[in-house]
Write a structure and sequence with these properties.
Largest sheet: 9 strands, parallel
Structural class: alpha/beta
Radius of gyration: 17 Å
Strand order of the largest sheet: 5-4-3-2-1-9-8-7-6
Distance between the termini: 39 Å
Number of strands: 9
Length: about 280
Amino acid sequence: MTTARIDARFKALKAEGRAGFVAYVMAGDPTRDQALEILRGLPGAGADIIELGFPFSDPMAEGPPIQRAAQRGLKAGLTLQGTLDLAADFRRDDDTTPVILMGYLNPIESMGHEAFARAANAAGVDGLIVVDCPPEEAGPLTDALDAEGLSLIRLATPTSDDERLKVVVSRTSGFVYYVSVAGVTGVKEAQTASVAPAVERVRKASGLPVAVGFGVKTPERAAEIARVADAVVAGSVLVDEVAAALDANEPAAPRVLAKVRALSDAVRGARVAETV
């Protein structure tokens, strides 16, 4: 069952006494070949888990950086099937790093829940985050994913009260993604003082690890979040490096992987520094 990779990774992180680093990148950004080079370099640069976005024309939860990344991915011709093919190419060389697809429901509905779940499993995908699929409407998709051993990872937010959390975490597996700020990605910075109690509340409700994202832009902030969360997610700050590489007419992978190293080093050192 592919979902075992997620559980194994969080078990290993717990044994190491540290939080994990989750790197979000967009499929096909800026080209398919460069995106694959970035993917293959992420584990060596310190990514414990990979979130692979599949391009969509109306990414409603995203701020300008990821919106532009989605447009670049679409321009490069990356469909949902193309994203799965990209994941399969990555998986041929790496059988341990969890890969989570992140995106929107429309392309999955177009493919069909069962067909998507089968294709995702065959590609070596471990889980799925669907930004615009509320729990009340997720039953058929969850059934299809369960049949293939894939995790549906849900989003909890600052506005999720205790009653809503019960609904959000129902049939969730792998981990819960806590959206640390109200609004879209890449705009506001996460505030550790408010994140810490929220993470504890989500852990208690779900019994699962909690990854925090939507507001991690610097190594300093990544380290702060790593002290209170099970994993730290960075996305907009990484796709910004792709844009910067394009502006400078340079290959994207070196810039993206350098940023991943800086952030993952901060995450890895956070709890060690706390105990010194």
